[in-house]
Amino acid sequence: MNILVTGGAGFIGSHTVVELVEAGFSPVIVDNLSNSNVSVLKGLKNILGQDVPFYQEDCNDFEVMNKIVQKHQIQGIIHFAAYKAVGESVAEPLKYYQNNIGSLLNILEVMKGNGVRNLVFSSSCTVYGQADQIPVTEETPRKKAESPYGNTKAIAEDILEDCIKSGMEMGIISLRYFNPIGAHSSAQIGELPLGVPSNLVPFITQTAAGIREKLVVFGADYNTPDGSNIRDFIHVVDLAKAHVAALKLLDKKTEGSYYDIFNLGTGRGNTVLEVIETFEKVNQLKLNYEIGPRRAGDVEKIYGNVEKAAKLLNWKAEKSLEESLEDAWRWQKRISNL
């Protein structure tokens, strides 16, 4: 099957491209490189021993997307492409609504016009907001999002559900990610944030590499064991494999309309300070960090029940927090020439 991967040069997208090829799929990447780097393509070639078709285009351009889908006879789409920084979304909400919602609507129109049936959508655990009960399940009521970024994911899920309710002949799966970290074990691809990282682990690795003077922990006065936020940190390769599992499930749903949602995580939470301490321990170094004020848009704690993914996708996370942080540091050392 020819699979279009939007945002395929990004962190999760690039790792998913690797898993798709290794599972026998033929991915085609579309990425406007607004939050990624063309060097990722070289890393992919080094891992796979082949080039992956790549288009530096914007998913909001209907004509371009239509031509790519027709040219490659695309049979399924994994839609990663979106802006994803919580803090930036609070400061620039219109940018996030225009891009994240607009690109999804465009993808759906292209699918509808070309008879492309299967879509795997990149959602987020942010749709749960600050849940009353942890761990969250797929049936946990969504709360008002803490950020415009989170709200774009909630709105996108509603759009997808409405499409299926209307009787559109599609199979759609929304994957609610928790916190992807790590890198490919080859250190050929990994997280490559542009500018100041918005995610914890690249900030940790950049601080360890001397790129950042210090790491700021956003708040240590939350109602958690050590006062820092709790998150479910999942290795990006485990997350990538779940997308292949989702496509395989959709491939079995050959008729009618199908929509489902899955949590993707490890099923347990770690505090930010635990992650810092684990990074120091497994990589045998000390980080310069300090406690700062809370950050707008952050929820106190979130981690998920992942039994549904285990049952229906036949998938579960296999890599440990220690492995994730070792891989992340190996990647950082390579790109920093350490």
From TrEMBL:
It comes from the Bacteria. GO terms for cellular component: cytosol. One of its GO terms (biological process) is galactose metabolic process. Residues 4-327 form the NAD(P)-binding domain. It is an enzyme of class 5 (isomerase). Its EC number is 5.1.3.2. Keywords: Carbohydrate metabolism, Isomerase, NAD. One of its GO terms (molecular function) is UDP-glucose 4-epimerase activity. It holds the Pfam family GDP_Man_Dehyd. It catalyses: UDP-alpha-D-glucose = UDP-alpha-D-galactose. Its cofactor is NAD(+). Gene3D superfamilies: NAD(P)-binding Rossmann-like Domain (3.40.50.720), UDP-galactose 4-epimerase, domain 1 (3.90.25.10). Pathway: Carbohydrate metabolism; galactose metabolism. Belongs to the NAD(P)-dependent epimerase/dehydratase family. Homodimer. This is UDP-glucose 4-epimerase. The lineage of its organism: Bacteria, Pseudomonadati, Bacteroidota, Cytophagia, Cytophagales.
